[in-house]
Specification:
22 helices; mainly alpha
Length: 566
């Protein structure tokens, strides 16, 4: 009985310790933040479509602005994260992000409530100004969210995990599992609110959620900061202290040597000119551009450059559960219910990918885990390539991929009549059955089944690979450059994501989707070839010893990769 009581007490103590640990507080804060982010990103697209008359124009502009802003400002945001105190960065980005979402939600409520009046004022220019404000404020919220992700997921987690790399891997995997769950549950929750109430009620709910979440997240950040003293010290501060000591030593040496007056005069002039140069107007104006340049140069010179580039190349794909894949699925006869089930299945395989990452990392090492994940992803995506040539595939090489886009730009498409007559509406209503018969009928579901089977199965390798590259960056980038390197990495991801949207814009017809699938798989293969180059230079022939007898030594002491880049 005494042993049972002691075991129960130890179990209760361990549970209590976990729920009061800094690690759990980070998970809880990340869950709250991610839930709000996913709700907002889903809802803002719905709101913009609703406001602009069921057109995707505002949504496309919003996506372009967001991607372009992160592409241009990613390195600058990362540099700010590196040069500022950790708690200040986390709290500032948290307040800016949630305040922007709250302000944007209030503005959208006003637009929904007074849209008729806004249209009539100043020939609709006031409504256009509201659209510009909504997109601009939402973009500010996204930039602040990027800063939060860099400082918490790429820096705070590393410090909380300490020197324990297994603990770091477990924390990264848990964060990704939270991401997978919120990707499904948060849009589902806010979608129900918008559907069964109104878009204005959805705006109010999101604004209220972000207000409450901001207060709780602020407290959790402060709690984690207090529980982890190492967060109060940054490498940049240590380096500044060392430089100050070195300067004091140099001054003492100069005082002993007593240089001549002429040399003192020359050195004073040089120091004054350098100070004036650094404090000049042109220097301050060009500072962001130098930061941007230095960030990209630092990223290029990192030993994990090819590993980071390999992850970015995976964003150049149409084989994901975004609006493009969803739209193609609709053209192939899949309804919303089936798509929701497929998205749920993709979330499950994504969680399995995080579990596979932790299992393979312990047995094969971190670098080998990335290689195994790449092989698994490419093998699954082979099903997508096969689907292009199966029965039911809309691939038609006789149809130009640019047919739709050229017809719009060259003016070949006919415009609808400005004032249709009653007869035209009667003719349309009477020919409804004929129009239904004219719709393309799905010959077979074999092609689309293989396509989504490959996409869903590939999520295991995709998320395992994502975690591998994330931890490689965390372990190999020095603390003083974590922010700027991860900022540039986000910029690279958005750049390839932009290219994939441009690719779809140039070839939007379903007959060309098979070509887009082949191009997407080609980019994924090129990305994993880059990772293979990094992995082989790190482990050489040991890369293929997947279950080596002593993988720990190879994890902790990998061979330094060559610095040359082709």
């Amino acid at each position: 009985m005494a042993l049972q009581a002691e075991s129960k007490k130890s179990c209760c103590d361990s549970v209590t310790d976990y729920f009061t640990s800094a690690k759990f507080f980070i998970y809880l804060g990340h869950a709250l933040s991610t839930w709000g982010d996913r709700m907002w990103h889903f809802a803002v697209a719905v709101f913009l479509v609703e406001l602009y008359g069921n057109s995707l124009l505002l949504t496309a502009v919003y996506g372009l602005v967001v991607a372009g802003s992160v592409l241009l400002l990613g390195a600058i945001i990362g540099d700010w994260v590196d040069k500022s105190a950790r708690l200040k960065v986390a709290q500032t980005s948290l307040i800016v992000q949630n305040s922007a979402v709250i302000l944007c939600g209030i503005l959208l409520m006003v637009v929904f409530l007074c849209k008729v009046q806004l249209v009539s004022l100043f020939n609709g220019w006031l409504l256009t100004l509201c659209y510009i404000l909504v997109i601009s404020i939402a973009n500010i919220a996204n930039l602040a969210s990027t800063a939060t992700a860099i400082t918490i997921q790429r820096d705070w987690i590393v410090v909380v995990a300490g020197e324990d790399r297994s603990r770091l891997a477990d924390m990264n995997a848990t964060v990704r599992r939270i991401d997978q769950l919120t990707n499904i549950l948060a849009p589902l929750a806010v979608g129900q609110i918008i559907t069964f109430t109104s878009p204005m009620a959805g705006c109010g709910f999101i604004a209220g959620w972000n207000l409450c979440s901001m207060c709780l997240e602020y407290f959790l950040l402060w709690k984690v900061y207090q529980m982890t003293p190492a967060l109060a010290i940054k490498t940049s501060q240590k380096e500044d202290e060392q430089e100050l000591k070195q300067l004091n030593v140099q001054k003492d040496v100069e005082a002993v040597q007593k240089p001549s007056e002429s040399s003192e005069l020359m050195s004073g002039v040089a120091e004054a000119s350098s100070v004036e140069k650094k404090n000049g107007c042109c220097y301050n104006i060009t500072q962001p551009f130098r930061t941007l340049r230095d960030g990209w140069v630092a990223y290029y010179n990192q030993p994990i450059f090819f590993a980071g580039m390999s992850l970015a190349f995976l964003y150049m794909t149409v084989l994901g559960f975004d609006c493009i894949t969803t739209g193609f699925a609709y053209t192939q006869g899949l309804n919303g219910s089936i798509l929701s089930l497929l998205m749920g299945a993709s979330a499950i395989t994504g969680i399995l990918g995080t579990m596979a990452f932790t299992w393979f990392r312990k047995r094969c090492g971190l670098v080998r885990t990335g290689f195994i994940s790449g092989v698994a992803q490419i093998s699954c995506l082979a099903l997508c390539v096969v689907s292009v040539f199966l029965p039911g595939s809309p691939l038609d090489l006789t149809v130009s991929p640019f047919q739709d886009i050229t017809s719009h730009f060259m003016g070949d498409s006919s415009l609808p009549e400005a004032n249709p007559t009653t007869d035209s509406f009667i003719n349309r209503s009477t020919s409804a059955y004929e129009i239904e018969e004219m719709k393309p009928q799905v010959v077979s579901y074999l092609s689309v089944s293989f396509l989504f089977a490959g996409v869903i199965a590939a999520r295991v390798g995709l998320w395992s690979f994502d975690l591998t590259v994330t931890q490689l960056i965390q372990e190999n980038v020095i603390e003083s450059e974590r922010g700027v390197i991860n900022g540039v990495q986000n910029s690279m991801n958005y750049l390839l994501d932009l290219l994939h949207f441009i690719m779809v814009i140039l070839a939007p017809n379903p007959e060309a989707f098979g070509l887009l699938v082949i191009i997407s798989v080609s980019f994924v293969v090129m990305g994993h070839m880059m990772y293979f180059r990094y992995a082989y230079k790190t482990l050489r022939s040991r890369l293929f010893l997947c279950f080596s007898s002593d993988p720990k030594n190879e994890i902790d002491n990998p061979s330094p990769p060559e610095s040359d880049k082709v």
